[in-house]
Amino acid sequence: MKKNAFWEGCRDGIPIxxxxxxxxxxxxxxxxxxxxxxxxxxxxxxxxxxxAGENALFNAIIEKASYIEVAVATLVINARYFLMSCSLAQxxxxxxxxxHRFFVGFGVTDEIFGITIARPGSIAxxxxxxxxxxxxxxxxxxxxxxxxxxxxxPVRIVSALSVALYGMFIAIIIPPAKKxxxxxxxxxVSFLASYLCxxxxxxxxxxxxxxxxxxxxxxxxxxxxxKPVDDEKEENNTSSTETATEKSEIKKxxx
Length: 255
Prior knowledge:
The chain is mostly helical.
């Protein structure tokens, strides 16, 4: 079961990794302007794994910001991962060891969170390890290559490659939205609210990362109040899924 989950994670991590690889080129250009070498860019991306956070980091280096300013900026921009981690923590089996939770938390990104939270039943750490195993190295390698050859590529090509990330977001949210009207409405409201907050005076002055956190908390809280999750139904669906998986494994063994 763990082996299957790992390979499923690798499979689902391939499109994410390819998107990361492409988008990281543009990030590598910023890193190069900050004076980072290809190796330094690889290490920064491997241990950060956050496009907005790394972009803020590299720009802070360019502006010669202090260590405290760099730490605060990256903390605020990446704070949304706290929310994602809290959400994922509720899907762990209570018996899951701390070290599994730690390493899964290390690889929490918007896309990996999306594919993980969409899986039925409790979280299998092996699945996340598979997705991380494919996507994080490609993200880091993309940054390194961006540092080495990013400035050589035409601007149009770099911009075209950046579209891949938005395609991944769409691929993540459309399937669950088609199955659940509440999710579809939540996505539509999120898009509209994000757009309005970007043009409304005063609110648009708030940093994008902070706006995202505020919108996430507010919209999620409202939806939780209006349309709470039916625990009994969720438990039945999880049990049915696990039973079907067990039957499938028994059948494979018999064959």
